[in-house]
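Example record

One chain of 439 residues, shown exactly as stored in the release files.
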Amino acid sequence: MLYRMGEGRPRVLYFTHGHPNLIRGGAEQAALELYAGVREHGAFEPFLAARTGDLALQRPGTPFGAVDGDDPNQLVFYAHLRGDENFFQTMRNKRFYTYHLAQLLKAIQPDVVHFQHTVHFGVEAIRQVRVTLPHVPIVYTLHEYIPICHAQGQMVRTKTFELCDHASPQRCHGCFPERAPSDFLLREHTIKRQFQDVDKFVAPSRFLLERFVAWGIPREKLVEIDYGREPQEPVPPRPVRADGKRNRFGFFGQMNPFKGIRELLLAANLLRDAGRMDIHLDVSGANLDLQTEDFQHAMHELMEAAPPTVGFLGPYAPEDLSERIASVDWVIIPSIWWENSPLVIQEAFMHERPVICSNLGGMAEKVTDGLNGLHFRARDPSSLAETLTRAADTDGLWEELRQGIPKIPTATEAAETHAVLYGELRDARSGAERVATLA
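Predicted structure tokens for this chain:
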């Protein structure tokens, strides 16, 4: 059943762990763009409640406050998990769930609740929705692997930095020896117990979907829906002479250990050592100041030692992307973890730039080697340097790969897909209620 615009439109309430106005992040941006797409589509009236750690944004007597702007359907709420709360993904003080969250749910009376995340405010929010609104479908988008992995959801071993392909109490204890294996067993049980109340999980990539099936979520409760994006007019290709090269590369993203910025700068040093001063790299990176002191120190050393062919442009706002991407030919995603469906891939494709990425996880799934981009061996600066050289030196390769770039779903198209899902879930719950009543 599809619901059309008009009086009494059904409502969908989105919960997310941050608002792009307050913190930059791919999942936060994806959640806001889905909200905007649903509002534009019109089948559902959307509401957005985004978590913040800023106490100043809440109103007296409530954790909820307003987002800057003129949209009354967007709210922020204060919540912050500490210590064991963060480990078990739930708050000790249950009043947030049983009173404040319950009051919000009663006030909005949504017909569907869609969690874009529960990190920083806890999985028991799911249970509270089921208690307060027992007949309302619950949807949960899985953006990475935090339910499976306490190491920031990266599935990278904390001691060796090796990739981890599955979790177990004993393996997780190896990453966090201060935690007993039984703690990890309880953490998994706690999260899976709350997940039982979810009607459908959305996975933006097949790779992530299969990881959660292997972890124990029933396959029939998972559906693959990629992110939809606000349409953008692609910027023209960078002008080059007839005998010129497509030799300008861009990095756009977080400057943290998992995004591969270290490996990228090491590759730039290898190119310099090989005498390749004609390959240029622009780094648009954010949030280095939020990383550990050791990582910041190592990065500053690498940045100071980088060749003059590397430019550090600093962070950027979404509206600045077009200007920055206009000066590059290729977009590089050198992440050292599995990733899911990085928004920067979609952004590169929307601007008709081929992508060079690690041969891992959702990156390798979204970028087809030799069709719309190139793969290199993850974590290997030499392989990355060789791939950059191949990209710059191979006549016609850029044009060929540009032709293979797929169309990215718009936010409105993603909203249509979600509206169909919401309608199906509502119909299924209504049918189950009728059967229960007859019984």
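Notes: DSSP finds 15 helices and 14 strands in the chain.
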